[in-house]
Every structure is written in structure tokens, then in C-alpha cells.
Write a structure and sequence with these properties.
Length: 351
């Protein structure tokens, strides 16, 4: 029995101004706009300036979410960042963000579950609020995947982009958290992983990291594809069942934006009409933990998602991992941050 309700009261998001188009990628690797468009649905991705860090995106997204909710950073009881690309392996990105927001002492931690991160963060935040531990939690999904993307590998470099999205989750009379399903299967990390920089291939040991390009995302694309379609559909059904709902009750699905064909196949399996599915993959590519809050932010901003709607947020990613949340939209405002490249970084290339 939960003591309190939880609601999202503000959303913020941003993407860096630099853009990498399919035509740009044609100049880097043996690929074509036609192949990328047909196989992924992607046209552009936003790429951070060379000196940029994930906190450069996470902080503006967080400030925008606070502005949307009408709160100051000091009003927040806990900060959770979902990211696979923190500024440092440690301390947590959330600690860096807290300091840049001007708060000291606020509990702050990261969730490391790759592209499923925002769904895990929302479930965690809602649970902390519903149980009475906190009254307000700032959750952020932020990534600079361009930093770990191998721009000599055509199988992966066309997919990834940078961005950040944030939400304020607060104690509320009406509980908007209707149900969730989270899961993971770590039996074969190599299906989708960043090999270098951990204890298996530490940065400090010989030249192996650079020689084998272990500091870049490695992926078995077709295995990930099959896993994604089956698991996103199954997870959505599980979360709906826990909410006491069916697919007919869904007003909108906000899926992780990994590949248009994955999204289309998933909603087809669920029997959900395409008009109920939020897709912005052409503009951003796959921004991992940032993809769902950016897509949610744009859908609220455009007036598509409205107060009272039943929204399913569903993701999959490295782990392998998956998760979905069924959430009643309480009509929270959204603020988009328009980022400028810092003056000191101007003049450098897009990536
Ligand atoms: C990566 C992905 C787009 C590849 O699409 P696909 O239809 O499975 O393509 P395949 O891997 O079967 O490759 C088909 C051919 O295209 C080639 N190819 C791969 N990338 C290419 C590119 N960017 N441009 C042109 N050709 C490419 C392959 O080399 C292969 O050539 P071959 O038939 O001569 O061997 C797709 O598998 C996918 O999206 N998987 C999920 C990845 C993902 O979401 N990862 C992140 C999860 S959070």
C-alpha cells in the first residue's frame, strides 16, 4: 500500500546545436542516405561540440524541467541521472549536476542501465515518492554517445546522437504511476556494450584499448533488433497488466527511439495504431537514456499528449535490459532549452 501519489510536474529537454546528417556520414563511411533512412528512419543526429560533456546537456535540461515545474533546485529532495556516458566513470553525473544547479547536500546518484535508464529512473523516483521517502525528485536522461561512437564503423556510427531530457516527479494527490515492468538479462554483454574503461579492459593497462578500439560501442545489430521487438512488446503488456489495463486503454506510446523499424514492429505486435506512437527519430537518432524524455517533451510541447492521457514509456538497451511504465499524464508543462555552443568552443568541428 502506497502512502502517497506521484506526478510529473515539469519536463525539460535539449539537444546540442551541431548536426550530423546522413550526407555527412556518407563522407565518413561507406553508407548512403537511402540505406540509413530505409533501415533506421534516421536523417540527422545532434552532436555535442568537441569539448562538451554530458553535464553540459544534463544541466540545461534540468533547469528547464525546474522552470516548467515552477521549482528551484533547492526544492528538490533527490537527483537521479540515467546515463551511459557520464562526465567521469565516477563521481556520478548526478553529483556534478547538483553542484552546477547550486545545491549542496542533496542526495544524487546515477542509474547505469543504458537506453532503459529513463524508465528505470522514473520507476525509482515514483517509488521513492509513493513510499514517502522524498517529496520531489529530479530525473535526467542525458547522453553524449558521440564520444563513444566509432566513426569508422558504419554498422554503429549512423545510429547514435547526443541530447538530454529531464522531469520533476512530485508528491501528488492523484497517483499518475499506474504500473511498471523492469527486466535485465546479462548473459551475453557483448551483444551491446562499451568494452573499455571498466575492470575488464582498464584504461591504464597497455595499448589494448586503443589498438582494438575498445573505447567504442560494439554491437550485434540483428540480435539487438530481434530482442528489442519481442521484449518491448512483452514488457508493455506486463506493465499494462500490473496497471489493470489493456492495449486498448493506451492513448500514446513513447518508445525508445532506436530504429523506426523496431518501433513499427513493436506497436504492430501490440496492435496499437501508428497515430498513437510518438516518433522523432529522424531528427535525433538514438540518444539512449535521453530519447524517451526528449520524445515525451516534444509530444507534450506540440499538444499531442494531453492531461488525463494514459501514456506508456517503453525502452530497451544494453544489459540487455528493458522497461516500461504506464503513466497518467497530469498536464505538466514542458520547456525546451535552446543551447548555444559556448564561445570558447566556437570554430571547432561538429564532432
Ligand atoms: C544496425 C541495423 C540498423 C542494421 O540493419 P539490418 O537490416 O539488421 O542490417 P544488417 O546488419 O543485416 O546488414 C545488412 C547489410 O548492410 C550493411 N550495412 C551495415 N551498416 C551499413 C550502413 N551504415 N550503410 C550501408 N550498409 C550497411 C552490412 O554490412 C550488410 O551487408 P552485407 O549484406 O553485404 O553483409 C539494425 O540491425 C538495428 O537497428 N539493430 C538494433 C541496433 C540498436 O538499436 N542498437 C542500440 C540499442 S539501444
Amino acid at each position: 500500500m502506497n502512502a502517497y501519489g506521484a506526478a510529473i510536474t515539469g519536463v525539460g529537454f535539449c539537444a546540442p546545436p551541431g548536426v550530423l546528417t546522413n550526407e555527412d556520414l556518407e563522407k565518413l563511411v561507406d553508407t548512403s542516405d537511402e540505406w540509413i533512412t530505409q533501415r533506421t528512419g534516421m536523417k540527422r543526429r545532434h552532436i555535442i561540440w568537441p569539448e562538451g560533456t554530458t553535464s553540459d546537456l544534463a544541466v540545461p535540461a534540468a533547469k528547464s524541467a525546474l522552470q516548467a515545474a515552477g521549482l528551484a533546485a533547492k526544492d528538490i529532495d533527490c537527483i537521479i541521472c540515467a546515463t551511459a556516458t557520464p562526465d567521469y566513470p565516477f563521481p556520478a553525473l548526478a553529483c556534478i549536476v547538483a553542484a552546477q544547479l547550486g545545491v549542496q547536500g542533496t542526495p544524487a546518484f546515477d542509474i547505469s542501465i543504458a537506453c532503459s535508464g529513463f524508465v528505470y529512473a522514473l520507476t525509482t523516483a515514483a517509488s521513492l515518492i509513493r513510499s514517502g521517502v522524498f517529496r520531489s525528485v529530479l530525473i535526467i536522461g542525458a547522453e553524449t554517445l558521440s564520444k563513444i561512437t566509432d566513426y569508422t564503423d558504419r554498422a554503429t556510427c549512423v545510429l547514435f546522437g547526443d541530447g538530454a531530457g529531464a522531469a520533476i516527479v512530485e508528491r501528488a494527490d492523484e497517483d499518475c504511476f499506474l504500473g511498471a515492468d523492469l527486466g535485465a538479462d546479462g548473459s551475453d554483454p557483448s551483444v551491446l556494450y562499451l568494452p573499455g574503461g571498466g575492470s575488464k579492459f582498464p584504461y591504464n593497462k597497455n595499448g589494448e584499448l586503443a589498438d582494438k578500439r575498445l573505447g567504442y560501442i560494439k554491437m550485434q545489430g540483428q540480435s539487438v533488433f530481434k530482442f528489442a521487438v519481442n521484449q518491448m512488446a512483452a514488457s508493455t503488456r506486463n506493465a499494462l497488466a500490473r496497471a489493470g489495463l489493456t492495449t486498448a486503454d493506451i492513448d500514446f506510446v513513447v518508445p525508445h527511439q532506436a530504429n523506426l523499424r523496431i518501433v513499427d514492429a513493436t506497436i504492430k505486435m501490440l496492435g496499437v495504431p501508428q497515430a498513437k506512437c510518438i516518433v522523432n527519430i529522424a531528427e535525433y537518432g538514438n540518444t539512449s537514456a535521453a530519447s524517451i524524455p526528449i520524445a515525451l517533451g516534444e509530444a507534450v510541447e506540440s499538444g499531442l499528449i494531453k492531461k488525463g492521457n494514459v501514456v506508456v514509456l517503453v525502452a530497451f538497451g544494453g544489459g540487455l535490459s528493458w522497461g516500461s511504465v504506464v503513466w497518467r499524464w497530469s498536464g505538466a508543462p514542458v520547456v525546451r532549452a535552446h543551447l548555444q555552443r559556448p564561445a570558447a568552443a566556437a570554430g571547432a568541428g561538429a564532432h
